[in-house]
Amino acid sequence: MLRSLKSRxxxxxxxxxxxxxxxxxxxIYFTGRRELYGDFEDxxxxxxxxxxxxxxxxxxxxxxxEGKLNSYLKELGAxxxxxxxxxARLYESPDGAPGFEKTRAAGEGxxxxxxxxxxxRFVVDTARDRSGSEYRIVFGLEEERVGRRLERMLLxxxxxxxxxxxxxxxxxRVFVRGALSPVDTLRKQAESIQRSNLSQRVPIPxxxxxxxxxxxxxxxxxxxxxxxxxxxxxxxxxASHELKTPLANLRTExxxxxxxxxxxxxxxxxxxxAAEEVSRMTHIVENLLLLAQLDSKQAxxxxxxxxxxxxARQAATDMEILGETRxxxxxxxLLAPGVSVSGDEVALRRVLMNLLENxxxxxxxxxxxxxxxxxxxxxxxxxxxxxxxxxxxxSVPHLFDRxxxxxxxxSRSPADAIGGHGLGLSITRSLVEAHGGTITVTSREGVGxxxxxxxxxxx
Length: 459
Ligand code: ADP
Prior knowledge:
The protein contains ten helices and 13 strands. With 459 residues, the protein is an alpha+beta fold. The chain has three domains: 146 residues, 2-Layer Sandwich (Beta-Lactamase); 86 residues, Orthogonal Bundle (Helix Hairpins), CATH 1.10.287; 153 residues, Histidine kinase-like ATPase, C-terminal domain (Heat Shock Protein 90), CATH 3.30.565. The chain is rod-shaped, with a radius of gyration of 52 Å. The site of adenosine-5'-diphosphate has 20 residues, from helix 8 and helix 10.
């Protein structure tokens, strides 16, 4: 098997050229052959006439001078015989090469010649002498000379075609190698790119064409891979960082408890604080696990008809208590009835709770969070709008990234008490996307933020 593209292309090129050359040679050969035989036949006829004329200009005299006829015929490479009307052979060329026989046919005055030799082409001529007697002249020319010319033609093709193919193979290889060398360069460069130097790119050839497109596509792919790797790296380091703090706190608390003896109440305080750290870690790990399951499509989400208005009302009611503690009013002014989607009620509740909770957490005292649900065409729309601190424009593109927090300093606010690890919105987006929906955000710093969720509606 020819595995390399170079060999296959060259072979294809040589085979095509070979077929063309053979077809071309065959057409020249057969046309040439037809013409050569045609010419030869004309020449046999012409020479037969010449011979007849020569014989009958002065036949009687020639009769005694056969030597002249003999040498004339020999020079031509011809053979001839002359018969009179009775079929008697008056003359025959000396070597008897034609080897023809006269047979008398049943019909009157008809002569048939059966030719025994294949090497001669014959014509039969009729002539009358002065006295009016009829003669038949059989004249033949060696056919071999045509055959020899055709053989020479075949020999030429037999040498010319393989020689051309050999040259074509060589030139083709050089040409194909030249044409494919950018692919080779590309391959070598792509080969040298490892995980450690994913920021490298393959050079883009200047000339337009497939190879340039391939290089651009490769670079795009490398860009996507680099971003994916960066995200994984950032995710791992963020996850470790988030877990490091509660673990360090836990360790300090345990060490404190071990260092000195204390009363039961002190131990209870320490253990309560340790339990809090453990629950923070459990919360993070559970969220990470959920994200991983959503990523790998392992999370099993139910597909039940869910009334979004009901879910939103319940979430708003649940969030009212938290809102009260922060001085933020949670309202649900527009909940259109009967807006249903096919999905997992628990997951959709979580989506709404996350959004409302953020609205409360990042809201301002005296402000409000509103949730609305309505149907628009084939979509169910949910909006959660707050009058809180807002999000700086430069943070909006990263808002749904894992562990992203707008301002780490800012989350030292009371919001931290509820536990903000920057995972809430990425889980929210994954859940919305798992339902075939989208989530976007519009925000103005100091004015408020609105999250827009669109889901495929039922019915
Ligand atoms: P967290 O658990 O820290 O709230 P999220 O993923 O829910 O994490 O949100 C990411 C960041 O986006 C938050 O840290 C916060 O800075 C910002 N954010 C989210 N919702 C709002 C909102 N309604 N108003 C202002 N900022 C918000």
